[in-house]
Amino acid sequence: MKISVLTATYNRANLLPRLYESIVNNIKDNIDVEWIIIDDGSKDSTKETVENFIKEKKIVIKYFFQENQGKMQAINNVIQYAQGDLLIECDSDDYFTNNAFKSIEKAYNENKNNNDKYYALCFLKYNQNKENMGRNFRDKFTTMFDLYFKQGENGEKALVFNTEIRKQYKYELENKEKFVTEARMFHKMDEKYNIICINEPIMICEYQNEGYTKNIKKQFVENPYGYFNYFREILQKDMRGVLFKKRLYVIKHYILFSTLTSQKKILKNIKGILNKILIIILFIPGRIMTKLKIKR
Predict the structure, then answer these.
(1) Three-state SS at 73
(2) Would you list the domain boundaries of the chain?
(3) pLDDT in tens, the chain (296 residues)
């Protein structure tokens, strides 16, 4: 078994050593690993930092540089170079737990018979206080859509992809935008495959002030078309079993992004009478609230 770790980074030279050390620490178990780094136009010492890692010859590192195109396009551009059986997209402000790769190897070997049925092994993700960033899994086999919209999960998880399947998909960006939620791609993968859930943490996260998560409202405004299509695609699904609060969440954001993108035929291709009724009821107040927030 070989693991490909893929990191898109921008001006994070100060954080990369921590991630590097966590990968090196994990190869003590003789697990084959490669680290693919795509530098999305950094202006700091990222290149020099990575070159120093390479000189140490502790792990195989493939370094690529591109002019700034955003994290999603960066990953789309280099995923073809991954040669592992499994692939992990690890942000530069995340790092691995001490026995992460051993846990991955164990789960991989235990589920070899289901290799063509799942697109990812799904593990827990902890913050720096060793607190679960979500909840423990209740089912072994599920989909990301069911996990978040039917089971009520809100926190982050760590996905370890089946590389062969992952390469068949990409992050779909709209109107030259630089960001789209990963969930849009996950939901496409859910249509054909499952995820296998393991209640073990393999990744630690530390959000940065300039990162995507802490600036989500800014991402909403700067990348509305990708988000609009994401929420529209959810409303085109069979939503039986979706929690009502999650349904409202989707409709609220569908109205938000239909306003930001000046959509007119908001009921076109929307599935389900309940969804249409809720959109009609909430559309005017939702549109007013959106415009007021934009003015602020």
Answers:
(1) helix
(2) 2-213, 223-295
(3) 999 999 999 999 999 999 999 999 999 878 899 999 999 999 999 999 999 999 999 999 999 999 999 999 999 999 999 999 999 999 999 999 999 999 999 999 999 888 789 999 999 999 999 999 999 999 999 999 999 999 999 999 999 999 999 999 999 999 999 999 999 999 999 999 999 999 999 999 987 655 455 557 778 889 999 999 999 999 999 999 999 999 999 999 999 999 999 999 999 999 999 999 999 999 999 998 888 877 76
CA–CA separation, 267 and 60 (whole Å): 51
Provide the H-helix boundaries in the chain: 16-26, 46-56, 71-78, 100-110, 144-149, 163-166, 183-190, 216-222, 224-235, 244-260, 273-295
The single-letter code of the amino acid at 228 is F
CA distance 135 to 100: 18
- Strand, coil or helix: what is 157? strand
- In CATH terms, is domain 2-213 a member of 3.60.150.10? no
* pTM, entire model: 0.93
Instruction: Answer for the pair 118, 193: CB distance below 8 angstroms, yes or no.
Output: yes
| C-alpha to C-alpha distance for 171 and 94, rounded to whole angstroms | 20
Please give the distance of CA 280 from its chain centroid, rounded to a whole number: 31
